Amino acid sequence: MAAASVSLVVAAGAAACGPKDGDAKSGGGDARPHKGGTLSVLNAQPQEDFDPARLYTSGGGNVPSLVFRTLTTRNRENGAAGAKVVPDLATDTGRPSKDATVWTYTLKEGLKYEDGTPITSADVKYGIERSFAPELSGGAPYLRDWLVGAADYQGPYKDKKGLAAIETPDSRTLVFHLNKPEGEFPFLATQTQFAPVPKSKDTGTKYEEHPVSSGPYKVVKNENDGEHLLLERNPNWSAATDAERKAYPDRIDVRSGLDSSVINQRLSASQGADAAAVTTDTNLGPAELAKVSGDKTLAARVGTGHFGYTNYIAFNPKVKPFDNPEVRQAIAYAVDRSSVVNAAGGSALAEPATTFLPNQKSFGYTPYDPFPAGASGNAAKAKELLAKAGHKNGLTVTLTHSNSKDFETSPEIATAIQDALKKAGITVKLQGLEDNDYKSKIHDVKSEPGFFLAHWGADWPSGGPFLAPIFDGRQIVKDGANFNTGLLNDTSINTEIDAINKLTDLDAAARRWGALDKKIGEQALTVPLFHPVYKRLYGKDVKNIVISDWTGVLDISQVAVK
């Protein structure tokens, strides 16, 4: 996931946990979920581009996953169990060839669209192919790199022959041919690009207005590009073919473009339709959380989740004085993580980080701290390293950050770092930029500053999509959006990434990702700061709360209402 894309999973979402076991499946009162009623979703960001080709989701997304089924999906369970990939349209998570360059899937029997017509392997192939069309861009980019002969493919509107890398020998079988071994292909198959689209119903850029549903709900209204979505039951969806989605409510009413404070006020009051409301993208802020925590009734309606996400300091070693590893190490020692956590909203909303990988088993989390400075930093050690680097009288640097009030790359975090580094003799000048200017500056190798705040979220819960975009030298983009902020191009690291990608044993792969994280961390190209914690209110009539480590947010496919 791109650094600013948490809302995808969004843009939302570390050892995660949902509510306590006693209330994990309830919203108070009678804990048994029942069918019926209308679930309201109150969001800040509209569900734009509601087309499976254009959506950039993880695990199939939250609202999108109600309409679009994919070959595989995320396991809809609390905590770590929810970080696993499971079958969806397919009978299993995929059958790899010996070298993981060919993946075969078989569709379940009895799959139907909302109009009752059968879902076929050709529909899944076509759905993938249309995601390559320039006018439908926006989805995850992996397929263009992974599929044989796909690099220059322009989609079925311009190239009627389609992708030879995807074979459909019969109506239920798909065979994918990859350029290189990819043991995590089952994770990629959770993206909405793998949702079936019937060619005869494809209306191009207008498809988002009424996409043909393969999930438990169909779109009956899409106003203002996703600002208001109304979903009703798909009568041809069968729970017998779908072990993941519960589909308790009769209707899902999604309203977006709301101010975050208004969303939390409405969920707190829980009046009228808002009693059966949730949010999939709005956290409680520090002040709101303090108020909620003091009210037992409200506190019982807060879901807690952790998504694979890290906020960190990034260095550009091409810019002085950050070309000197001892300067980078000195800053790592000087950082006061306790003050950074406080600036992010306190320990209830942020957990200190010393590893780049999130602290979840699925990522391969391996505890390490190459520059141990304790909770509040080690100014003496930082000064010692600065002296070795030729800065015994200290130095002055500029820290670039966003002016957005996101408690991640914003002024509060920058100021906490500024104060901590001052104790080590480092004067930090702050360069705050409007968010679009900030993103443009830090993701362009020509303008990337030497010292700035950044963050990264995972496309799926594994070390691969977390480490490779940031540290694989072959992913440095010179004429576009670049996320390898340290401009690292180390042959041994690139080779190890390739070796891990060949593994279809994901537990073994996770251990290797953890070891690689430690190796990279010792180079001090980043200083991990904290992993966010998500605290979100839900209405008093909402039941069956499930929050997985995959998304870190309430899964609306599991929710029931009174």
Average pLDDT metric: 92
Give the proportion of residues in helices.
Answer: 10-25%
Largest sheet: 5 strands, mixed
> C-alpha Rg, in Å?
23 Å
InterPro entries: Peptide/Ni-bd (IPR030678), SBP_5 (IPR039424), SBP_5_dom (IPR000914)
Pfam families: SBP_bac_5
Region (Disordered): 16-41
Domain Solute-binding protein family: 84-474
Task: Please give a structural write-up.
Residues 84-474 form the Solute-binding protein family domain. Pfam families: SBP_bac_5 (PF00496). The two termini are 36 Å apart. The longest helix is centred in the last third of the chain and has 16 residues, at 506-521. The protein is of the alpha+beta class and 562 residues long. The relative contact order is 0.18. Residues 2-29 have low confidence and may be disordered. The chain contains 14 helices and 21 strands.
Topology:
Layout: E1 38-42, E2 72-74, E3 85-87, E4 95-96, E5 102-106, H1 121-130, H2 142-146, E6 166-170, E7 173-177, H3 185-188, E8 217-223, E9 228-233, E10 251-255, H4 260-269, E11 277-278, H5 286-293, H6 296-299, E12 302-305, E13 309-315, H7 325-334, H8 337-343, E14 350-352, H9 379-388, E15 395-402, H10 411-422, E16 426-433, H11 435-442, E17 451-457, H12 464-471, H13 491-501, H14 506-521, E18 526-532, E19 534-537, E20 542-543, E21 560-561
Parallel strand pairs: 1-10, 1-11, 15-16
Antiparallel strand pairs: 2-3, 4-5, 5-7, 6-7, 8-9, 9-10, 12-19, 13-17, 13-18, 14-18, 20-21
